[in-house]
Specification:
single chain, 261 residues, 5-stranded parallel sheet, 11 helices, 5 strands, globular
């Protein structure tokens, strides 16, 4: 089985990817972006993966197995990308499909029953991905107030020099994008495995059992001891009254529909 994980940024996608990757029956890469290139020829795909590496370089690890090697992230990411392309070429010579990606991933991670990639932005292309019967899709969502608060912290620090941050650098833009993501998720709910971040925090065994049943792995394999609900409600200190008012004006009806209000 091949699996993608998506969700609005700062919704818990990285935690979910880590939980899955640490499961002994799973191997999940981190924002490698491979599903963004479905339909490409191998040559174009190789260029796309190289471009992805150039954009990321050493900002984070494609594979969390070397995530703590800060000084070598750039090199290890390049090595991972080249290894993936080599495995892909060995397994398949046609265009990039979910089936060919699964074959390449299985060659890289032969002990895993479930393989795949996490990238928050997959959520916003879900209209396309739900048409692919060979692709399994896991989406996580979170309270818009906490998403906005956490996103703004990053936008004002680690992401402040990113060329895209101006598109989502205030509460209004983030809340509007969150609503759009939720609407996409709701539209395709029957074709997705959906997790609520807060439910995962409070009832991890129950929620991860749902996931395990959907993808066919042992629920006991998820390391639930790393889950900490302390991040819930941080918006109360992270958002100004004006920012909170903006979020509620834009996302309030959607949040109420989801049971947050």
């Amino acid at each position: 089985m091949i699996l993608m994980i998506g969700g609005h940024p700062r919704s818990g996608t990285t935690l979910l990817q880590t939980l899955c990757d640490l499961h002994p029956e799973m191997a999940m890469t981190n924002e490698f972006g491979c599903f963004s290139f479905l339909g490409q020829s191998y040559g174009v795909y190789a260029r796309s993966i190289y471009d992805r590496w150039q954009r990321v370089q050493g900002k984070w690890a494609f594979d969390i197995s070397y995530a703590d090697q800060d000084e070598k992230l750039k090199f290890n990411n390049l090595r991972f990308a080249l290894r993936h392309l080599w495995r892909f070429r060995q397994q398949y010579r046609g265009e990039v499909t979910a089936v060919s990606l699964e074959a390449a991933y299985r060659a890289m991670f032969p002990g895993a029953r479930v393989v795949g990639d996490k990238w928050p932005h997959y959520l916003f292309r879900m209209n396309e991905y739900v048409q692919n019967e060979d692709l399994n899709r896991l989406v996580i969502y979170r309270d818009c107030r906490d998403v906005t608060s956490s996103f703004l912290v990053q936008a004002r620090s680690n992401w402040k020099d990113a060329d895209w941050v101006h598109k989502v650098n205030n509460a209004e833009k983030i809340a509007a994008r969150w609503v759009r993501g939720i609407e996409i998720m709701e539209k395709h709910a029957d074709k997705l495995i959906i997790l609520q971040y807060e439910a995962l925090m409070h009832e991890p065994e129950r929620e991860l059992k749902r996931v395990s049943e959907a993808i066919g792995v042992d629920p006991a394999g998820f390391p639930t001891d790393m889950i900490n609900p302390s991040s819930i409600g941080k918006y109360q200190k992270g958002l100004t009254p004006s920012e909170l008012e903006t979020v509620m004006e834009i996302a309030g009806p959607t949040m109420e529909r989801l049971g947050y209000l």
